[in-house]
Amino acid sequence: MVGYLLAFVFLIASANGDTISRIINGSPTTIASHPHQISLQRYTTSSGGYWYHTCGGSIVRSKWVVTAAHCVEGSSASTLQVVLTNGFLSDPNRKSYAVRRVIMHPNYNVGSGAYPHDIALLELTSDADLSGTNKAIELATTGENFDRQTCDISGWGHTVTGTQPNKQIPDQLQETNGVIMTNSECTSSWGTNYAGSVHICINNRNTGTCQGDSGGPMVCFRGSTPVLAGVTSWGVSGCGTTYPSVYARVSTYRSWLDTTMGI
User: What is the pTM of this model?
Assistant: First the structure.
């Protein structure tokens, strides 16, 4: 039993891009297909100082971005910036926005399971320019269910599998999709680490999210309207395996999100 538990714990790995920052087996895409997608960047003082992509996120209001709590844990607002691009991190016309406040869910990582309540809000110091291709996305409503729907995921995380140190993040935004699994199916894969009240998972066998995709969007549809249904949270070390990727269930946090944003 101990061996099984140790092996199982080894499988679980945050998709955090803190120290290594692709969508596995996905396809290059454009920001027009994912206009809500942002690059969350962190400042480092090494090599003279520079900003680097660390996680994804989603614009939900002109001054508000949703990302994963583990992406910003221990970070001050001054070390983070939100970057809007044309889908390429090297976009010469990219727009960078300073962060005024970092607000993690008050119950982040409290309770049973892996990374419960892994969601955070970033308040920008100024309104993001949403007059062009970049747009805010609607949030899932409380109790909204997306089981069996094919949903989209996107990000700039690693695009190759495994744990080799030479993995690089792509310049161009990547996308893939998968079918939302039921809570019982997700529990069959992850056991007690999966908590259906706060987690949602997607069947994206041999594709999916990886380091650098954390905090990014899982987008489902309400009719023809794209809706932020999940925030990339955790999966299997090595990425791109047969285990489902796990996301923070946005519908659970709609009330907290609205209250925090003053809506």
Answer: 0.86
